[in-house]
């Protein structure tokens, strides 16, 4: 049982990790120092994890990686938006 | 078997995702626009995944998250190094 709680907390931390960056970029409108390829790779990875979770019918994997996919694509959108203004 | 390959590729993508950011920050020495809290949360998450993997004796989880832990701590170190120079 303990390891399930551990896995749940680990999943939440890695899922919401991009939030502070989203807030900072939203506030500062500055993204010059950030690599868009990091978020492209992350999107590719969590996207595949969602497909993996669907095949295995594993809801925690689908949910955590689905949220990650939304947060990381929002970050990529912000970068496209503000990159042109840098 | 296919989903194992899918999970393996997904794991590699999410593990190496921070590499382009590491290279960019190393080259530009500029980290002002990056949120250190993103990497603190990531470190916490992948650190817990390593402990989770050890408890469950799951080597793929230990390996991918162990590498992530090293890459993300290197990124945090770079940020501490260059932050003082910004």
From TrEMBL, chains A, B:
Keywords from the UniProt entry: Membrane, Transmembrane, Transmembrane helix
Keyword Transmembrane assigned: yes
Highest rank taxon of the organism: Bacteria
Transmembrane segments: 6-23, 35-55, 61-82
One of the Pfam families matching this protein, by short name: MtN3_slv
UniProt entry tagged with the keyword Membrane: yes
InterPro entries: SemiSWEET (IPR047662), SWEET_rpt (IPR004316)
Protein name in the entry: SemiSWEET transporter
């Amino acid at each position: 049982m303990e390891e399930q709680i551990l896995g749940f907390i680990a999943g939440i931390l890695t899922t919401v990790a991009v939030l502070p960056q989203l807030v900072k970029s939203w506030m500062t409108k500055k993204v010059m120092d950030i690599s868009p390829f990091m978020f492209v790779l992350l999107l590719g990875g969590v996207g595949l994890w969602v497909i993996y979770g669907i095949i295995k019918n594993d809801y925690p994997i689908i949910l955590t990686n689905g949220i990650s996919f939304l947060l990381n694509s929002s970050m990529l959108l912000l970068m496209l938006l503000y990159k042109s203004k840098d």
